[in-house]
Fold this sequence. Notes:
By secondary structure, this protein is of the alpha+beta class. Among the domains are: 2-28, no CATH class; 149-255 and 333-480, Rossmann fold (3-Layer(aba) Sandwich); 487-625, Jelly Rolls (Sandwich). The protein is 34% helix and 19% strand. It has 16 helices and 20 strands. Strand 1 (2-5) and strand 2 form a beta hairpin. Helix 6 crosses helix 16 and helix 9 crosses helix 10. The chain starts with a strand and ends with a strand. 36% of the residues are buried.
Amino acid sequence: MNSRQNDSGKAAILPETTEQHVKSGENPVQKQPAESGSVKNGVLKRFVWPLLKVPLYVVFLAATVILILAGLEKMAGYALSKTTLAHVYPNDPSMALRDFTKPVSHYDYDFNPGVCLEYNLLKGNRYEYANNAGFRDPRDISTDKPEDEYRIFLVGGSTAYGLGAVGEAAPAMNYYGIPFRETIAHQLELILNANAPIPGKTIRVYNTAVWGYAYQHHLMRYVTKLRLYRPDLVISLDGANEIPPMCKLTKDWDYFQEGQFNNIIRHIFAYNGSGLTSYLTLWLKNNTFLMTYVWGGRDLFQELHQGEPQELHRDPAEESETSDASSSERPDQSRALEEKSRFADRNAATVVRVVEDFHGALRNDGIPHLFALQPWFYLSKKQMTEQERTLASLTGTRTYYGVPSDKMYQLFINKVSESARTKGYFLVDFSAYFDDVTEWVFTDWCHLTAGANYLLAKELANLVKEHIFGQALTKGDLIDNKNSFFWDFAPSAKVLYAPPSDKPENGPRNMLSGYPGQAVYSSVVPSGVEKAEVVLDVGHVYPVSRVRLVWADEESVPEKWAVEVSTDRNTWKTLVEATREHTDNYSQWPGFEHVASEPSEARYVRYRPLDGKTRPIKLRCWNIQR
Length: 626
């Protein structure tokens, strides 16, 4: 410290810095800005930073989370590219994000156009995609109908769609599936063009069915969508999907709120908690690879619908549905049964009115309509096969809400049949159609095997031919022995002649396995000794009208070929003659299927190329049926 005398003689203490400034001639005021900056920094630390710290921290965390999610999204996209979905959608990976179905406010839900509807490759089929309108059909459809097309729509639920075994029946039936070519719609188209041709027209039958659909869906979907495509005829095959809602015997029952996914859409449009959660979940599934990978490509929209799991199989008698009774009073058993019966009649009558409305909408548009009631396993009196005995042992759908499904379906059948008689619309009841069949018909409680699908298609074709087209039925339309239409004669046939195989493992039995697969019959190049043909002996003389061929690859398809039949192996009759342009892509490999207008008696069946080129015969599958 330095000191000096002031005027009073006392020493004054001066800071060294001040004295130094004085000695150096500097003005102490010049250091004020530095002192002011320190004050500002202090203010910043004391007041501003605490205010900014939390927002900046939140921004940092948000950025970190976004980066992590973006990384996970990239990883999920890569992981998804290594799954089956990458093969299903090789040209458009974003389609892997789509669900099978999508919400539609005015008729519940529908298929997403372009989505893959069938992954099952057990029968050698290709992946199958919904067309531009969301139909199960490989052909796109235009609202401008071609002049030379007669357009038929098959509407219905999962049986008309061709779903195969579902639920607990799926593993019991070895996940039996129905590819497109075994659907009722496709077989109906083949049969009608062969047995009931329209001069100058090609008959096209489009599969517009959607699993889970009931008559309320058919009505609203026709009014808002299907009529835009100008069908010439509508065939509805349904009935089983009416059973669950009709079995809900409650006072406040509302058919139009019992739709398959109606509760999800209703909640979403109500903007309530569960609805917004469902919407957010659906949005994430349909817009991120991460959620798609987590859900494994499953239809999230379908899985969100759990109904009311606690209530699903509750007996309505357990609930107090009578508001006029006091809490201490319970209706006696007779009154409860009477009330159940009244509710059941009300529910069935409500559905019948919707059927009448559906018919009325079609009639007003001048479109012929054929109603068909589908079979139901628990109503059938057929002799059971081993598979069907297994089905009978499962819990299945014998009851809904404590109500026997067979009794409720029979009630509906009775009421809608009476309505058809009084209102004058065309109704056919297939509920007991298979009672005299001993072959395997049911894959679960309402879905059918390929053979059963063909029989229904043939019956529908006969009804259309006779009652809609006004044509007389012929011998080819005859259905005498239903069981015989299930048989494929090729697997048990004897190979009488085939050129030698090029390898021991490529023998001719490979093509007689029933469905195409990796195994193939591949012959040597026929020389002057070997004939370029394959001859089978099916063991007995049978009426034959259907044949299907699947070749090994595109190169093995002849420019022209024929399938011929004979009863004595001396006189041959051409069953079908076709060219390479007639092949289809329903299998993974080029194929061809044919339905003749009239059956031919055959014990011997011959396939031979007609293009005159010397080439090996390469076939993966050959089916021969009535």
